[in-house]
């Protein structure tokens, strides 16, 4: 709004002497409102103070923030600094391993291992094409990650750098990222989310797409996921969960069961006026978690999601379509988001299930516990939610850490594949 007011003259630029920019890392884009405000101020003498806990993931993005905000001096503070320490408190971070029932657990571990091998084979397939085009040093899937693929993409886009077959390399990069995202879905949220991800890309658009889709590993992976999906649906019916519950994977059921246990214990030890935020990675998971928690006595649950339209039109993130008036796949308007935050602060509900949109910039006064339901793979996101949390992870790693926070507890709940 400020940039529009400056350009229209509603806000006289000459009257501005100091500009404080919160979440300054967003100015990495020259099109963001922060950068537009600085341009609107022109050469006027204004003191600009930019604040950010996560200024950028690399030097280039940090430099972009400094350039767009015209920052000439950088100050760094950590929780150990003398002027910060009085306002911070220790945070306990615990790890809880959760397992399914013995039969489901064994099947899930075997299936997950097979899915990992299939995805690694497909990543190596695309990696070989990229290596042949001098974009990767090695096609070993253990040496390929999203950062490596992004760097390869920058090289491929540079027309001054010779690439033997640029069109094939471009499509191979796209499919390698598609497979890499699948690996992340499997690690963060389990096989059900991997299955959802693969179904978003079913029509081949290039020779690289065909090469991937016709590969034995891809065909067998889809067959396994279909069998697992059918098995979950059958068990869901047999267990009589057609009323109110949601059909979900073994991993999801184990994690939600542990989440219920932890939340109920938390409110028993605290009181019903305590407040908890549950962070998830995907909108589809928001609804699944909210439905599960809504059946627990003492838990008053609501959701907080972004404003955009969900990519999956089959997912209805509205808990009460009559109340919100939104169709399937629609997000929350800014007014609805503000209403949710006000209601949460007022204690009208005590559990808020949210996507990463709620990790920064929300005016929430006090939260006793924060839960990361899915794996937080980004150090930037980990800092954003660093106010004390229970984290429910679908992965093999176990970690115990201490971090800057208010007086809260962080518990990491991990799906045990060991």
The sequence of SSEs as H and E is HEHEHEHHHHHHHEHEHHEEHEE
The counted number of beta strands is 9
The side-by-side strand order for the widest beta sheet comes to 3-9-8-7-4-6-5
Which range best describes the helical content: under 10%, 10-25%, 25-40%, 40-55%, 55-70% or over 70%? 40-55%
In terms of quaternary structure, the protein is single chain
Q: Strand fraction band?
A: 5-15%
Low-confidence stretches: 236-247, 313-328, 387-407
Structural class: alpha/beta
- Major sheet summary line: 7 strands, parallel
Radius of gyration: 24 Å
User: What form results from the Cα inertia axes?
Assistant: globular
Helices, by number, come to 14
Q: What's this model, at a glance?
A:
Helix 14 (379-384) links the parallel strand 7 (369-372) and strand 8. The chain is an alpha/beta fold and 418 residues long.
Topology of this protein?
Elements: H1 2-8, E1 18-21, H2 33-41, E2 47-50, H3 59-69, E3 92-98, H4 102-132, H5 146-157, H6 166-189, H7 191-198, H8 207-213, H9 216-238, H10 250-269, E4 276-279, H11 283-293, E5 301-304, H12 321-324, H13 334-345, E6 351-354, E7 369-372, H14 379-384, E8 389-393, E9 409-415
Parallel strand pairs: 1-2, 3-9, 4-6, 4-7, 5-6, 7-8, 8-9
Helix pairs in contact: 1-2, 4-6, 4-9, 5-6, 6-7, 6-8, 7-9
